[in-house]
Amino acid sequence: MNLELLDPLGHEYPQLIEETLEDGYVLKCKFNKRGTLLAAGCLDGRCIIWDFDTKGVSRNLVGHIKPITNISNRFIAVLHHDSPVIVDILGKDIVKTVLPTEPETREERHS
């Protein structure tokens, strides 16, 4: 099959709703590249990951204080106990990152 001749916008979409997912008011959602996971950023600060293979919630990330307004590819940045955390959804690893919130003082630099 010659993929260059296919219309990239000519996808067939379902004519009826097959499944519904409910778990809060969602502001932003995005599928992964394979279409098996759906990440949803909620108004209450939660990030819910739905798994379409099991048709259930894969992860429920809580701890963010403000609404989640953007989701990007494989990683999700959230606040966990007042510290920024980057979550690897596929590997289910939590990698904490230290982000400076206050300027460094002179005493801290020389100690």
Please outline the helices and strands.
Blueprint: E1 26-31, E2 37-42, E3 47-51, E4 56-61, E5 75-80, E6 83-88, E7 93-96, H1 106-110
Antiparallel strand pairs: 1-2, 2-3, 3-4, 5-6, 6-7
Subcellular location: Nucleus
GO cellular component, one term: Set1C/COMPASS complex
Keywords: Nucleus, Repeat, WD repeat
Average pLDDT reading:
69
Biggest sheet: strands, sense, closure?
4 strands, antiparallel
Low-confidence stretches: 102-111
Morphology call = globular
**What is the class of the domain at 22-96 in the CATH system?**
Mainly Beta
Q: What string, H for helix and E for strand, traces the elements in order?
A: EEEEEEEH
Rounded to the nearest angstrom, the distance between the terminal CA atoms is: 65 Å
Percentage beta strand: 35-45%
Radius of gyration: 19 Å
At the third CATH level, what is the topology name of the domain at 22-96?
Thrombin, subunit H
What is the number of helical segments per DSSP (H or I, 4+ residues)?
Answer: 1
Task: Return the CATH architecture of the domain at 22-96.
Answer: Beta Barrel
Total DSSP E strands: 7
Percent of residues in helical segments?
under 10%
Could you give the order of strands across the largest sheet?
Answer: 1-2-3-4
**What structural category characterises the helix and strand content?**
mainly beta
Notes on the structure:
By secondary structure, the chain is mostly beta strands. It has a domain at 22-96: Beta Barrel (Thrombin, subunit H), CATH 2.40.10. Helices cover 5% and strands 35% of the residues. The protein has one helix at residues 106-110; strands spanning 26-31, 37-42, 47-51, 56-61, 75-80, 83-88, 93-96. The chain has a four-stranded antiparallel beta sheet, with no helix packed on it. A three-stranded antiparallel beta sheet has the order 5-6-7, with no helix packed on it. Strand 1 (26-31) and strand 2 form a beta hairpin. The chain starts with 25 loop residues before the first strand and ends with a helix. The model is unreliable at 102-111 (pLDDT under 50).
